[in-house]
Amino acid sequence: MAYLTLNRAKLKENFDYLKQTFTANEVSWGVVSKLLCGDRLFLQELINLGVDEVHDSRISNLAMVKSLNPEIQTVYIKPVSKRNVGKMVQFADVSLNSELETIRWISQEAVEQSKNHKIIIMVETGDLREGVMGDQLVEFYSQIFQLPNIDVIGLGTNLNCLNGVMPSSDKLIQLSLYKQIIELKFNKEIPWVSAGTSVTIPLMLTQQLPKGINHFRVGETLYFGLDLFEEKVIEGMNDDVFELHAEIIEMQEKPLLPVGNLAANPQGETAEIDQSLYGKSSFRAIIDIGLLDVDPKYLIPVDGEYEILGGSSDMLIINLGENPNNYKVGDTLNFHMKYMGALSLLSSNYIEKKVID
Questions:
Q1: Considering only CA atoms, which of 192, 67, 43 is closest in space to residue 55?
Q2: What is 242-263+274-356's CATH number?
Q3: Which of 113, 159, 165, 357 has the greatest number of C-beta atoms within 10 Å?
Q4: Would you please indicate which residues are annotated as catalytic (active-site) residues?
Q5: Averaged in consecutive runs of 10 residues, what is the pLDDT profile of the chain (357 residues)?
Q6: CATH 3.30.420.40 fits domain 8-228
């Protein structure tokens, strides 16, 4: 069976780097755990780092966090559906919101559960996902402040999540100005201006983060060490916290081109024929993981001598060329992965998860 490993030491190095960076910039932050898909083993590793605030988009994952450490502040980071409001209030201390009617439901549920629920109001800054339009913000807040058992602790935004709009100093200054307007208008303190996600970190590293921005929600950079502006690893961080290990279950020297009449495969794809490859062959390995588990485009071979040719639901086909490393049946091929690849693998019940030092 293919398995996925989390390197404890490399995760800690990434966490310590971010912790030191945020502390030096006087910015608070929470760790986004949704990549871990509620896996108890990996969540425990996260908690062992000393995390005191966990963000997730699945209520069941936040419930798992609370079962491991009830003292951690949990944050629900997407608009909640009406039928899940009760569970959300039960397991999330904070939620991100942009719908007045939804916040009314949260208020009612918080009263019934005899607890105060904290909210961050999301503001639209151009990426056109969730968020209140700026010209509606004052009126929106005026109604929220009247609701019982609701504590407004911040305003925030999401960028680069839908249309790829990147954060900028101008957009973040605009967010800080909204905070000042709300505070002056209603004589209320808004503690957090939550600037966004990992994609905003490069602005902080280059001293372009406006001073009013004081809270981040970080996932991808913690797990992959990436500067998402330049798509490169930040110096001092690791991009290989996770690694996939898949066993070779067949090894044969085969023609490079298929033989016979071609039709679409189960994925709706038809092979393209490069006639210059007729009569040529290579060593091809089949590994014990397939499209059901991960899209091959998100996998990065650790050994650059092989490439993924394609796959079916339960198997991937690897071109080993002349097989310079002398791989054989039973050997393991290793892959690093992009964020979406790790997300698929972590959500698969067919992939074993292990922690290594």
A1: 43
A2: 2.40.37.10
A3: 159
A4: 34
A5: 96 98 97 98 97 98 98 97 98 98 98 98 93 95 96 95 90 95 96 93 95 96 96 96 98 76 60 62 93 96 89 94 95 97 96 96
A6: no
